[in-house]
Design a protein that fits this description.
The protein has about 425 residues and is an alpha/beta fold. It is built from 15 helices and 15 strands. Helices cover about 45% and strands about 15% of the residues. The structure holds D-serine. D-serine binds next to loops.
């Protein structure tokens, strides 16, 4: 049936197609440095559009509340098995539909109302779900900030141990959104055990690096639970995952209840096969990809510094992850600079710098850059240097760089480190 060609709905329908196509065309011409995003392989994309878009599957394979789930049961079982294998985890739940939903599932079950907790502040790079105004804040407002060293970024392990021993928090949250260096999980393990404190490691940003063994190994170092989103350095579709060692069955059962019925019912089945394909890609290509991603982040930091930018944590080599943070206050601050870069087709976000007060969140000094997507398109250190040059030209308004950005992207159009649809046949 065709809509009346003069009706408002027909105009809007046409606009839906136009905007989606325009976004596709534009994003293919941009250098995307948003640190929380990535792109799917052609194989992982090819299984997104299926009948599973329409279906429900509450509970677990073998214990569903709906009939008709025999095929999704198989996919879900294989996905959980693959995740357990990749992370050497005794227990995995692949049902959370995002990292925040995974966090909600943990907080809702292990944090008694009003109990003390320790997490990074948003100014300290923490995620909004760890904050008083976020998911953890629904359980408790008694959220203490991690004490930091003079660099304003690193947790002070001695002061942190004292704080845990004194407050005996229900949970401590490690992992952040501005995530440059590993967290001191091993250093805090013993005091947490003595205090009856659970360690939640939010590995959303660095999940692909953890999978590859190139960052840190939270479950071996002492984290009780490892949560993450599956679409940043772990380059799958937009979902979440919860992992645990599995030795403490009662704890895993508690987490399981936190996912269903605690924080989700159906779990967006259409993207589960895509997660399985992506997880198998992480297993096959993840080490090479993660190694190159970290090298590229360090190269971008060096190339920006060479051009006069102040890159955060320079004395510690800028980063051991996919991210770098840059002080752009001499060029007008993070809000203005990120907007100017976007006008030139270089996409990133404004960000508080380590040590900067939270009240500056809407006009911070910094920008956060993530190289994980450009690395997946096959870029290396030479391209990082070109990106630094284009950013410098854009930020100093030396010239319009959109044509150069587009030309660079034209050379890197195909997603690497993945399978093709033919590999699924
Ligand atoms: N806040 C997002 C980020 O780090 O970009 C993730 O949820």
């Amino acid at each position: 049936m065709h809509a009346d060609l003069k009706s408002p709905s027909s105009t809007i329908l046409k606009r839906v197609r136009e905007t989606v196509d325009a976004n596709d065309r534009w994003r293919n011409q941009t250098i995307n440095l948003i640190a929380s995003e990535n792109v799917l392989s052609s194989a992982a994309r090819s299984v997104l559009d299926s009948d599973l878009l329409h279906r429900y599957a509450e509970g677990h394979p073998g214990g569903r509340y709906y009939e008709g789930t025999k095929y999704v049961d198989e996919i879900e079982t294989l996905t959980a098995e693959t995740m357990r294998r990749i992370f050497r985890a005794g227990w995995a739940d692949v049902r959370p539909i995002s990292g925040t939903v995974a966090n909600e599932a943990v907080f809702s079950r292990i944090v008694p109302q009003g109990a003390p907790a320790i997490a990074h502040t948003v100014a300290g790079g923490g995620h909004i779900s760890h904050a008083r105004i976020g998911s953890l804040g629904k359980r408790t407002k008694n959220i203490l900030a991690w004490p930091t060293l003079a660099d304003g970024y690193s947790i002070d392990p001695a002061a942190a141990r004292d704080l845990i021993a004194k407050e005996k928090p229900a949970v401590v949250v490690l992992g952040r959104s501005l995530f440059l260096f590993p967290e001191p999980v091993a250093e805090l393990r013993e005091v947490c055990q003595e205090a009856g404190t659970r360690i939640l490691y939010d590995g959303a940003h660095v999940l692909g690096l953890i999978a590859a063994g190139t960052f840190q190994d939270p479950l071996r170092e002492g984290a009780d639970a490892l949560n993450g989103s599956t679409h940043k350095t772990f380059f799958g579709p937009q979902r979440g995952v919860m992992l645990s060692g599995g030795e403490d069955e009662a704890f895993c059962k508690t987490l399981d209840k936190g996912v269903f019925p605690g924080s989700s019912s159906n779990h967006h089945l259409f993207s589960l096969p895509s997660l399985l394909v992506s997880a198998l890609e992480v297993e096959a290509f993840g080490k090479d990809y993660a190694t190159k991603t970290i090298q590229n982040a360090q190269a971008l930091g060096g190339s920006l510094a060479k051009r006069g930018f102040t890159v955060a944590m320079a004395d510690q080599g800028y980063t051991l992850s996919h991210q770098v943070a840059v002080d752009v206050s001499p060029f007008g601050g993070g809000k203005d600079v990120s907007a100017r870069l976007c006008e030139q087709d270089i996409v990133c976000n404004m960000n508080l710098l380590p040590g900067e007060p939270g009240k500056m969140a809407f006009n911070p000094s910094g920008i956060r850059l993530g190289v994980q997507e450009m690395t997946r398109f096959g870029m290396g250190a030479d391209e990082m240097d070109v990106i630094a040059e284009l950013m410098h030209a854009a930020v100093t308004a030396a010239r319009d760089v959109r044509a150069e950005v587009g030309a660079l992207r034209d050379r890197f159009e195909d997603v690497q480190f993945g399978f093709t649809p033919a590999d699924l046949l």
